[in-house]
Q: What sequence folds into this?
């Protein structure tokens, strides 16, 4: 009976990690596609390395690597791989919890940093340098998608208000622009999705805890069986 349960646990872990591996490969592929197809700069200077494509690539690589370790560790009943899988899941869960605590504790300071960085990104987009076109394209996408304009309102653009801010009668003195600033819109978007984000983090942590429990159960079983580091 115990052997049957452990075998079931083993194949469940293999199947779950295989699904995660496939999802990770899909995320990496999509990240590469975005990198090749949309060569846009970041909206703000401080987030130059954290574009959506880069984040997708990084998260996809992490998911793929961890899932592959779990799959091979369970399939081969390898203690070394299972222990590495356990430690990586524990480290990821720790990072997620620390990040959540930092967001809750320093919400005001983070909002101020985002505001300053958006202002700097706006000035960069208004500048006449080689990269300003790419930054402007990023602003156009965000302003159309979020129905906002500038950091506080459309007057932040001065005399050169982009078309992505215009609602009607563009290129005329009577043009009407989007009233809301992107800073306020982003803040409202975060507040509206705060509960969903919190639930997602909790669900992710539960999945990681289950993965650690499965890995440690198999690890202990292999140790008692005297299989060692057999491949």
A:
């Amino acid at each position: 009976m115990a052997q049957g349960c452990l075998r079931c646990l083993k194949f469940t872990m293999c199947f779950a990690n295989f699904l995660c591996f496939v999802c990770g490969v899909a995320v990496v592929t999509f990240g590469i596609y975005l990198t090749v197809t949309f060569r846009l700069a970041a909206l703000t200077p401080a987030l130059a390395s954290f574009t959506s494509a880069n984040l997708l690539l990084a998260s996809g690589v992490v998911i793929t690597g961890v899932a592959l370790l779990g799959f091979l560790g369970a399939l081969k009943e390898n203690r070394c791989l299972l222990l590495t899988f356990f430690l990586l899941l524990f480290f990821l869960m720790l990072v997620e919890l620390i990040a959540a605590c930092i967001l809750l504790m320093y919400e005001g300071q983070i909002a101020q940093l985002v505001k300053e960085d958006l202002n700097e990104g706006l000035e960069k987009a208004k500048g006449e340098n080689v990269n300003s076109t790419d930054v402007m394209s990023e602003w156009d996408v965000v302003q159309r998608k979020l129905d906002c304009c500038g950091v506080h309102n459309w007057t932040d653009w001065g005399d050169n208000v982009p078309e992505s801010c215009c609602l009607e009668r563009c290129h005329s003195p009577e043009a009407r622009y989007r009233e809301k600033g992107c800073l306020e819109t982003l803040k409202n978007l975060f507040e509206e999705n705060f509960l969903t984000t919190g639930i997602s983090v909790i669900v992710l942590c539960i999945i990681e805890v289950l993965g650690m429990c499965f890995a440690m159960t198999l690890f202990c079983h292999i140790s008692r069986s005297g299989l060692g580091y057999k491949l």
